[in-house]
């Protein structure tokens, strides 16, 4: 996936009005937007196509899909039919569940991102011990897109080493969670930034500052 300036906006706001304000403010710098449960539950799945049409942005639907294969398939189908370019899928549910989303992505000519390990402290209890196996499973399944944490650079590096240099890694946790953009981009292809931008009093200049700080 081609991500302008290597920054993805996590648009975790709860109204369409605010979503449009923030997306508009950063549109000179950011062309890839992650829509997750906060906006989709508040404003519906059509929030995806509304943002996509208004800003010509790519939309990554962050539904962290984690169900049995049959249900995963339905979730992925509906998400792609709503206009998402990609869907984020949990890996811990296993190869069959992930494969169901990959099949949907193939049929809709869209993409899957495999979530390997998470950025928050609690992820070290259960997900971290499994993360390397999840990344290895992704490689075996032929997945090219991954999510790995910006808050734990050594873990991000480990995941990069498993999935290889040709894989595409996006990394959340920059800014509000303490992760730092340039070290993240040493190992990830793009950083996901949410609150630092959408809670800032000047999202446009904040996005510009982040982009200016990156050695592209
Ligand atoms: O910059 P923030 O902390 O406001 O937002 C980070 C976004 O990334 C937010 O949408 C989280 O739900 C998401 N995220 C994480 O913060 N940590 C993870 O490990 C994984 C994700 C994510 O995007 O998962 C796919």
Description:
By secondary structure, the protein is of the alpha/beta class. It has a single domain, classed as Aldolase class I (TIM Barrel). Helices cover 49% and strands 18% of the residues. It is built from ten helices and eight strands. The protein has helices at 16-25, 37-43, 46-55, 69-81, 95-108, 123-141, 153-163, 181-187, 195-198, 203-212; strands at residues 7-10, 32-36, 58-65, 86-90, 111-115, 145-147, 168-172, 190-193. It has an eight-stranded parallel β-barrel with strand order 1-2-3-4-5-6-7-8, surrounded by seven helices. β4, α5 (95-108) and β5 form a beta-alpha-beta unit. α1 (16-25) runs parallel beside α3 (46-55) and α4 (69-81) runs parallel beside α5 (95-108). The radius of gyration is 16 Å and the shape is globular. The chain starts with 6 loop residues before the first strand and ends with a helix. The model has no long low-confidence stretch (mean pLDDT 98). Residues 10, 12, 36, 62, 64, 88, 115, 118-119, 147, 149, 172-173, 175-177, 192-196 line the site of 6-(methoxycarbonyl)uridine 5'-(dihydrogen phosphate).
